[in-house]
Amino acid sequence: MRLDTLGIDPSVSVLFPPEFLAEQLSDVPIDVVVPDDSDGSTDDADGPHGAVPPCDAIVTFEHREEFLDLDWIHSIQAGVDRFPQDRLEDAGVALTNSTGIHGDAIGETVAGYLLAFSRRLHTHIRNQEEREWSQPDWDEAWTIAGERACVIGLGSLGRGVVDRLSALGVDVDGLRRTPVPEPSVDRVYTPGEIESAVAGARFVVLTVPLTGETEGMIDRDVLDAMRDDAYLINVARGGVVDQSDLVSALGDESIAGAALDVFEDEPLPESSPLWEMDEVIVTPHCAAFTHRYGEHVGSIVRENVRRARDGEALTNRVL
């Protein structure tokens, strides 16, 4: 792999300034270039566009056709569903991702969702906006200690969730492709057992990548298998859930509620009924946000620059 110049695509500004990452990489033994985005480029829902600088590799949030001519692409996200993997493989482009850096932020966000529902914090926030003093009924608030969660996906994201929830006294089951035991997880199910896996959980937490196997995996059958006092937590990808089935299940109170950070269409359209549901928390695909995000990405990129220069295999390689 030729690696003399590394570019930082303007699309990374969705999560941190390109210049911040360039500063983090100031010690690498190659040129790091940030394009000038003052040439009239426009923004779209996926992030800002700017001219791709002359480079051998790129750090990016989104994919562009020009990247097919590069030697290496690094995605600042763990998920790589934005990238045409078949075409990249045919073009001989290496693809790496940022898996492993999101567990702390995702785990804390999920813990926050659970505590919000159990301690009724989302209701109190709405009441504060209306200057309404309204205490919950005697049996409305509860504690999460002793409740059970099922974490669908036990990779680095799932591990971050398991660590936080088990520390809070939540009993945890999990689901992954192979039933390999996992520390602090009472039972590990496989995808063919998903309805059994969710049946006993107060919280079902989604932390799987979006793939052909996981797309639409949470459908009406799975939602019907959940308890009627259960909450669905999605910090994975919107496409993992059949959103129309979820809206229906929430509407007829087949489940108690949901905390959703990701959606089929983003931003979530103003017309979506999810905005108006009392027992739904909507966050704008920010569960992994942290002021150290660029620092974490920089550590992976720096290591892979070293490996590429030394002829070693790249870490976090997808292709």
Notable features of this structure?
2 domains; elongated; Rossmann fold; single chain; alpha/beta; 5-stranded parallel β-sheet; 319 residues
Number of structural units classed as domains: 2
Give the number of helices: 9
Structural class: alpha/beta
Q: Report the major sheet.
A: 7 strands, parallel
Q: CATH homologous superfamily of the largest domain - what is it?
A: NAD(P)-binding Rossmann-like Domain
**Number of separate strands:** 14
Low-confidence stretches: 39-48
In whole angstroms, the N-to-C terminal distance is: 14 Å
Query: How much β-strand is present in the residues?
Result: 15-25%
The CATH topology name of the largest domain reads Rossmann fold
Helix content: 25-40%
- Helix-strand topology string: EHEEEEEHEHHEHEEHEHEHEEH
User: What's the Cα radius of gyration?
Assistant: 21 Å
Determine and state the CATH class of the largest domain. Answer: Alpha Beta
Any guess at the CATH architecture of the largest domain?
3-Layer(aba) Sandwich
Report the average pLDDT across residues.
95
Query: What is the assembly state of the chains in this entry?
Result: single chain
Strand order, sheet with most strands = 10-9-8-11-12-13-14
Q: How would you sum up the global shape?
A: elongated
